Amino acid sequence: MSSNRRITLIFGGFVAAVAATFYPIFFHPLTHKEDYKQVQKVNRAGINQADVQPAGLKIWSDPFKTK
């Protein structure tokens, strides 16, 4: 196997490993926003954010909210 092909395979494997790592962390939530909104509704039910969050900090109600 030539040196260039070996370097290409190593670099391609590294890129594939990084892509496989970032997919469930970054790309899946971006493409399935409604699923995550439903999960957050269930998880945040009955929680008063003012009791949990320290005073003076901005409260983010929906990280997926579009303007």
UniProtKB/TrEMBL annotation:
One cellular component term from this protein's GO annotations in UniProt: mitochondrial inner membrane
InterPro entries (UniProt xref): MITRAC7/Phoenixin
Pfam families to which the protein is assigned, alphabetical: MITRAC7_Phoenixin (PF15061)
GO biological process: mitochondrial respiratory chain complex IV assembly
Regions that span the bilayer: 7-26
Keywords from the named record: Membrane, Transmembrane, Transmembrane helix
Entry keyword annotation includes Transferase: no
Keyword Membrane appears in the UniProt entry: yes
Domain of life of the source: Eukaryota
Name the record gives this protein: Small integral membrane protein 20
Gene name of the record: smim20
